[in-house]
Design a protein that fits this description.
The protein is an alpha/beta fold. Helix content is 30%, strand content 19%. It is built from 15 helices and 17 strands. Strands 1, 2, 3, 4, 5, 6, 7, 8 and 9 form a nine-stranded mixed β-sheet that branches. Strands 11-10-12-13-16-17 form a six-stranded mixed β-sheet, with helices on both faces. Helix 6 packs across helix 11 and helix 12 packs parallel to helix 15. This is Glycosyltransferase 61 catalytic domain-containing protein.
Length: 482
């Protein structure tokens, strides 16, 4: 008798059995549906070297093995230091040759507010509770067998909030001075801003808290986050945390800024700018391009914006007429705007008359990056000259109050170095105006703040300003750099 035909139920059971065997014994086929390929290549390990423990401690067995502090670069107020130790709130320089260490008062101070007078100056000088030089033997006795390591580059700011909370003092002094100091380690920075030095890893304020570093215009944080997006920040609470731990810490490399320590420097005495002291160090002509280009890219523009002398110039007048302080005479402001508009019609140049307080931070950065000539009354709005692209036509024009003595009829004209020095430090040209009289380096006056300097009756001759714009933008010896 033959086999009877298979029933539908038996056929189904056999199929299920075969499918199960297939899934079990055929390698690499453990899913019924194919796995889609990744959208991008699989990430590679950040470190392909042999695995090891993180280096969190600098250790030694004897005093002779304690790593000594090394001063890499120094001018008053600005120092690059390797292996700077901190223990219970005191900065410690470990050296068996203390005579080779610069005067510690030119490195570090008590970090208190800057007040006028000899007594105030003496009160800012450091003592043993602030900073000390110790030998390796003293370090071994004080630290024991090691110190906790903060690796990478640290920006350490030993300043109170007094000046930090102002856009100009933050960007054009502190940030400016930090990078001018640190970039002295690479004197071949290219025009594109490429550099061999690694970015700073952290910024540490030991005199102020996290609520007192931002400025009223909220520009400080824009500059930090765009210059170094992964920079971390520590403040006085973090400093206090480390003090309470009772253990020593060592900064692998620190760029140390101290306003009080910078003030006796010759360049500070000449220009009243703490960053000026840092220019005693070597540096590339393109030193600032690393920061400038990072900020401009962050603003969504090509770093080459504003480059070249053959492109359409951009004139930007930073008006303070709605600010309520340090403003032009209204009629002079209106005439200046008319004269600039004439240039726009006659030459096809782009003219912008702007109120910074009415612009977003992004708009301010974008406009500054494109600007060829920036002008305005002495004030915070001119800080954005930092983002201009230096070339042969790049110019800053600043309006000052020409004061006058009613007794001798002798003029004491107002002037401050803030934007004049910053402009020249970037390789651009600066002109000051007292009404219809222009001046530029090397014929610059001494700083003066006559009555009316902060007032709202500052005169300026719009025709003279427009004529200077024509001279600057139609240079006979123009060089085509782009």
């Amino acid at each position: 008798m033959g086999f009877s035909p298979a029933t539908p139920r038996e056929i189904l059971l056999v199929c299920l059995l075969l499918a199960g065997l297939y899934l079990i014994f055929v390698p690499g086929r453990h899913q019924l549906l194919p796995v889609p390929p990744p959208l991008s290549p699989a990430p590679q390990p950040l470190n392909t070297q042999e695995a090891s423990f993180y280096s969190t401690r600098l250790s030694w067995a004897s005093a002779s093995q304690v790593p000594q502090t090394k001063i890499i670069a120094h001018v008053p107020g600005w120092s690059i230091i390797d292996r700077l130790y901190i223990y219970q709130g005191v900065v410690l320089i470990v050296s068996n040759e203390p005579h080779n260490v610069p005067n510690i008062s030119a490195i570090y101070s008590k970090g208190v507010d800057i007040e006028v007078g000899e007594e105030a100056e003496m009160a800012r000088l450091p003592d043993d509770t602030d900073i000390r030089i110790i030998s390796t033997t003293e370090a071994r006795a004080l630290f024991g067998s090691g110190a906790q390591l903060l690796d990478g580059v640290t920006y350490l700011v030993n300043d109170p909030p007094q000046y930090v909370r102002h856009y100009y003092h933050w960007a054009a002094e502190l940030w400016f001075g930090f990078w001018r100091t640190y970039s002295s380690l690479d004197t071949s920075i290219s025009a594109s801003g490429n550099t061999t030095i690694p970015p700073p890893r952290r910024m540490w304020f030991n005199r102020l808290d996290a609520f007192r570093w931002r400025d009223y215009s909220t520009m400080n944080q824009w500059i930090v986050r765009s210059s170094f997006p992964d920079l971390t920040m520590e403040f006085i609470d973090d400093w206090d945390d480390r003090i309470k731990m009772g253990v020593p810490f060592v900064l692998e490399r620190v760029v140390l800024a101290d306003r009080s320590a910078a003030m006796p420097a010759l360049n500070y005495q000449r220009y009243q700018r703490t960053a000026a002291a840092a220019f005693g160090l070597p540096g590339s002509a393109n030193w600032w391009m690393t920061i400038r280009n990072n900020v401009v890219q962050f603003a969504g523009l090509d770093p080459e914006e504003g480059a070249g002398t053959r492109r359409r110039p951009v004139i930007t007048y930073i008006s303070r007429q709605a600010w309520g302080r340090r403003m032009l005479i209204p009629a002079d402001h209106e005439k200046l705007v008319r004269e600039l508009r004439k240039l726009e019609r006659a030459y096809g140049w782009e003219v912008n008359v702007v109120l910074p307080e009415k612009m977003s931070r992004l708009e301010q950065l974008q406009l500054a990056a494109r600007t060829t000539i920036m002008m305005g009354v002495h004030g915070n709005g001119l800080t954005n000259l930092l983002w201009m692209k230096p070339n042969f036509r790049s110019t800053v024009i600043e309006f000052f109050f020409p004061g006058i003595s009613t007794h001798s009829r002798h003029y004491t004209c107002g002037f401050a170095h803030d934007y004049e020095y910053t402009t020249r430090a970037l390789g651009m040209t600066h002109y000051g105006f007292w009404d219809d009289a222009a001046f530029t380096s090397p014929d610059i006056p001494l700083p003066a703040y006559p009555e009316g300097f902060q007032g709202n009756e500052i005169p300026v001759d719009g025709e003279a300003v427009a004529e200077l714009c024509i001279q600057r933008l139609t240079l006979e010896a123009e060089v085509d750099d782009g």
